[in-house]
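Supplementary Methods S3. Input chains for the assembly prediction are listed below.
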Amino acid sequence: MIGVHEEAEDLAQEVFITVFEKIDSFRGESSLATWIYHIAYNLCKNRLRYLGRRHDRNRQVFDEMAERNVVESGTMSTSAQVSRPDEMAEGFEMERLIQDGITSLDEEQRVIIVLRDIQNMSYEEISEITGLPAGTVKSRLHRARMTLKEYLSPYLR
Amino acid sequence: MDHERVKASFTCYHDGNLSEEDRRILEEHLAVCDDCRKEWETYCRTVGEISGLRDIVPPHDFARHVVQEIRRRKVGESFVEKSLLGIKIAVLSFVLMMIFLLVYLTYLLLFAGPGTNNRPQGGATERDAGSYRVIGPIQIAPPAKMDKKE
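Predicted structure tokens for the full assembly:
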């Protein structure tokens, strides 16, 4: 979502601190998870604006992070469920391409595709988190997927 | 159904949001149109690849860092939020700092600036690099007796 690993880590920490500080204002109108996502969404938006102002949008690729995750988790849990080294390398390359593709989307489309296709949320939940009407969510999701399709089609066999 | 309309329906079709009638028309089109079918296959693969991204695992000490940061902020907050004589310490500190600054500036203007008329009293002064320095008490010698010439 942010595109820079250190920023994302810092932001994730900020999300939980904000949750701790504002837990009294949680009225249970939505699920706790949705409320936390809403906080994360707002903090992300603010951070992206801040980074945009600083012209600090050095989109760092996540290949090193992917390697670290494999070492830490000891498992692979994606499309890259492969055992051969060449296939594993291909899996990492595809992940890097997808990450690059997502990062290249504009902020409005990026958040929708992350919530829908990565976090597997329903349109209603995404509407609650972002405050957007379901129709807008659908149209942004469609544009984001089509853009990514064009971006990834040369690499898809 | 034309090709553009088919492509525009991909997201609704994929997520099961098409009406029965539209779904039937789209499927009929995909069955006969190779280009649209290829587009649809690429679309499905793209969504599949995105959905297959691994979850990002937070660092093992993430929770500890969050707790530490909360504690650090709490300590800072509690000091600043404390009150003394009904005034918050933060406000009191600011006011005291401003008073001190004002007194210091006043002193500088009145006593330490060059060309001031308010020189320290009680002694002779010597001009030294723009300021006056007391060099000792004023000694007034009695007037020398004049010898009267007869």
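The two ends of chain B are 144 Å apart (CA to CA). The mean pLDDT of chain B is 78.
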